[in-house]
Write a structure and sequence with these properties.
Strand order of the largest sheet: 2-3-4-5-6-7-8-9
Distance between the termini: 62 Å
Largest sheet: 8 strands, parallel, barrel
Bound molecules: 3-methyl-2-oxobutanoic acid, zinc ion
Radius of gyration: 25 Å
Number of domains: 3
CATH superfamily of the largest domain: Aldolase class I
CATH class of the largest domain: Alpha Beta
Number of strands: 16
Strand content: 15-25%
Shape: globular
Structural class: alpha/beta
Length: about 500
């Protein structure tokens, strides 16, 4: 029996990008959109065009850059939003407008200060107006998770009659439990007369950690589109993660559903999104976490060596983890490096590859073998080094037991060198104090996070930093074998963005 296909609607660039600190520029968004296309998603929600000129422009450029997936733009049920979205989608080969309005008691009464009948009228009007620009119109019933099912069914029937091709049933607040969300979808299937004229879509948030379970309940009860993000990023606790839904359907053949996702590209895409959005993936995250396929106990290691399936339900190679294939060391050539970069989803020109290769040899001299995470850092450094206005040229720290931690550093700021020394409670604090002395601005450090990338004492440290200046937050990232250097580089990355903006 052939399997039913569940369409994958990726909203990493819209719901995912709403997360503070995860904002991408248009070039980075195009990079992600192309990776999503290669991954095999059916729909890319590219942005909310009325929200900012940057978002508008990103929808335009993604529409030009991407060929196969449908490109979707979000709107409220407001005429101006719909006109702007239609304009942003003018180059899309397969455009879709995603419009909608709140349908729960909370939204109708407290947010929209309206009533049930008026909301239905506004929903119909928005869908009809969107339909005058594009054929493919998706309607979202915001807070459907907490909406009354009988009323929700009336709204859905009305918008399908008005021309909606897809009806999205968001659990906006992540409140539902799986049995309840599944029942909601079943209720719509059984009680909306024209439901066969539209695709039902799930859109679940993870506030109670149930986004994936709810999405699965939705599709097992008849939804045929799942709205998801890479690594599950998104508002608050995030959205349903793409990799979890794709791998559940691939792994559990008995569910009898399939997707168009090329699972071998999952890991590369996950790392790209994490790197560009400066959003680390938690080590124990299902499918893409650093420990998702690591067996640490002796019993498990022994079991896996006897037969991988004793403890693994997914072959790591199926999600693009190919650890044993080629080990990159200082003796590896450009071809091996290129092969690994291709696997990670990066296609570099000959000149770019030469630059990255030089940097790679430098790292490989210091570290026995270079892992995918190291390569991503090398690539990130390569990109960032072209647009820095603050560069750390020299850093020396004195620290240890019974010593006053002191840092001396030289920073090049817009081409001129500045050198300062300062003390602190530790080497990182001393180095940051020296930077503050040079920049003479009162920036407040709001968040400082150090993470090891792989394992071992020759590991590289990744540092994420958030600073605050005049009420605005800026984010920075640094990576180095020396965590003090990584910390200063992350700090400079954030300060540099702050100085550019002020
Ligand atoms: O969570 C939600 O309700 C949304 C809609 C705008 C689709 O993101
Ligand atoms: Zn959402």
């Amino acid at each position: 029996m052939s399997k039913d296909k569940v369409l994958i609607f990726d909203t990493t660039l819209r719901d995912g990008e709403q997360v503070p600190g995860c904002q991408l520029n248009t070039v980075e968004k195009i990079e992600v959109a192309k990776a999503l296309e290669a991954l095999g998603v059916d729909v890319i929600e590219a942005g909310f065009p009325i929200s900012s000129p940057g978002d508008f422009n990103s929808v335009v450029e993604i529409s030009k850059a991407v060929n196969n997936p449908t490109i979707c733009a979000l709107t409220r049920a407001v005429k101006k939003d719909i006109e702007v979205a239609a304009d942003a989608l003018k180059y899309a080969k397969h455009p879709r407008i995603h419009t909608g309005i709140g349908t729960s008691h909370y939204h109708i009464v407290y947010k929209l200060k309206s009533n049930e009948e008026e909301i239905i009228e506004r929903a119909i009007e928005a869908v009809k107006y969107a339909k005058s620009f594009v054929e493919d119109v998706e309607f979202y019933a915001e807070d459907a998770g907490r909406s009354d099912n009988v009323y929700l069914a009336r709204v859905i029937e009305a918008v399908i009659a008005a021309g909606a091709t897809v009806v999205n049933i968001p659990d906006t607040t992540g409140y539902c439990i799986p049995e309840e969300y599944g029942r909601k979808i079943k209720f719509l299937k059984e009680n909306v007369k024209n439901i066969d004229k539209a695709i039902i879509s799930t859109h679940c948030h993870n506030d109670l950690g149930m986004a994936t379970a709810n999405t699965l309940a939705g599709i097992m009860n008849g939804a045929r589109q799942a709205e998801v993000t890479i690594n599950g990023i998104g508002e608050r606790a995030g959205n349903t993660s793409l990799e979890e839904i794709a791998m559940i359907l691939q792994c559990r053949k008995d569910v009898n559903l399939t997707t168009g996702i090329n699972s071998k590209k999952i890991m590369g895409t996950s790392k790209m999104v994490s790197r560009l959005m400066r959003m680390p993936v938690q080590a124990n995250k299902a499918i893409v976490g650093r420990n998702a396929f690591a067996h640490s106990s002796g019993i498990h290691q022994d079991g896996v060596l006897k037969n991988r399936e004793n403890y693994e339900i997914i072959d790591p190679q199926d999600v693009g983890i190919n650890e044993s294939s080629i080990i990159l060391t200082a003796r590896s050539g450009r071809a091996a490096l290129k092969h690994r970069l291709d696997n990670l989803g990066f296609t570099l020109s000959k000149e770019e590859l030469d630059d990255v290769y030089d940097k790679f040899l430098n790292y490989a001299d210091k570290k026995k073998d270079i892992q995918d995470d190291d390569l991503l850092i090398i690539l990130g450094e390569e990109k960032r080094s072209h647009d820095k206005n603050l560069v750390l040229k020299h850093l020396q720290v004195i620290c240890g037991k019974q010593t006053i931690p002191t840092a001396t550093l030289t920073i090049s700021y817009n081409g001129k060198d500045y050198t300062e020394s300062e003390k602190g409670v530790g080497p990182v604090d001393a180095a940051m104090n020296a930077v503050r002395k040079i920049i003479k601005e009162k920036v407040k450090l709001e968040e400082y996070l150090v993470q090891a990338i792989t394992r071992g004492s020759d590991d590289m440290g990744k540092v994420h930093i958030e600073i605050e200046y005049n009420g605005v937050h800026y984010f920075g990232f640094g990576a180095n074998y020396d965590v003090v250097t990584a910390s200063v580089e992350a700090f400079l990355d954030a300060v540099s963005k702050c100085l550019k903006a002020n």
